[in-house]
């Protein structure tokens, strides 16, 4: 008994001494860190305008790397699924031996009144299964975040990325977004809806006292990981 207690204590101490590897908070690991510069255009000889200046006839919509575009996040998702399964099978077997290597002529069998050669084998099998399942999910997220154009693709689409941190009463919240938008989907107010963002990765998470209370303690997580049943 003491040997098992010592092994458990050593295991607990080893778990406590293990380094704590926390993943990077938010999508920083997948986020590009540099803005891909746009290829400079060839300057026309005798032109009065430089390529780095704003176009006199263009609007204020984002159209080049480094520009800022606002994304209105409005995501709603709802799904439900029901499944029911009911199966059954019944089998019965009856068999007798009338002539097999002289067994029916055996005096030992014939003298036994409980032996019926026409009904020597009998089996019944019954199997049934009833199962049902139901799942549902409902999600709603509304937010606004400013993003930056980090790359202009060859077809003119814009790759955007943005993140925002908010601290409220020692509770830190994080909103991150990345994806690809078309310049045509950006409104005159330089705002694009999240439903028009291709390959969108939206992150909304937080850390603090409230987030810590939403998960079980370290001992409960340890027991849950090693519990075999």
Automatic annotation (TrEMBL):
GO biological process: bacterial-type flagellum-dependent cell motility
Location(s), subcellular: Cell outer membrane; Bacterial flagellum basal body
Keyword Signal: yes
Entry GO CC: bacterial-type flagellum basal body, distal rod, L ring; cell outer membrane
Subunit structure: The basal body constitutes a major portion of the flagellar organelle and consists of four rings (L,P,S, and M) mounted on a central rod.
Family statement: Belongs to the FlgH family.
Name of the protein this chain belongs to: Flagellar L-ring protein
């Amino acid at each position: 008994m003491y040997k098992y207690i010592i092994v458990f204590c050593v295991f607990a101490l080893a778990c406590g001494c293990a380094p704590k590897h926390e993943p990077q908070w938010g999508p920083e690991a997948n986020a590009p860190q540099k803005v891909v510069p746009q290829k400079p255009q060839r300057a026309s000889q005798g032109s009065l305008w430089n390529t780095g200046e704003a176009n006199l006839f263009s609007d204020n919509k984002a159209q080049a790397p480094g520009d800022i575009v606002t994304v209105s996040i409005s995501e709603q998702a709802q799904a439900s699924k029901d499944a029911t399964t009911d199966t059954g099978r019944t089998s019965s077997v009856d068999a007798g031996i009338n002539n097999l290597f002289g067994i029916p002529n055996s005096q030992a069998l014939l003298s036994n009144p409980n032996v019926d050669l026409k009904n020597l084998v009998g089996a019944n099998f019954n199997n049934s299964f009833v199962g049902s399942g139901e799942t549902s999910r409902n999600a709603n997220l509304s937010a606004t975040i400013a993003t930056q154009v980090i790359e202009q693709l060859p077809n003119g689409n814009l790759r955007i990325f943005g993140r925002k941190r908010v601290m409220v009463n020692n509770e830190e919240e994080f909103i991150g977004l990345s994806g690809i938008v078309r310049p045509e989907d950006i409104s005159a107010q330089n705002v694009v809806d999240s439903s028009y963002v291709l390959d969108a990765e939206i992150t909304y998470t937080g850390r603090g006292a409230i987030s810590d209370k939403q998960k079980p303690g370290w001992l409960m997580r340890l027991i849950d990981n090693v519990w075999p049943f």
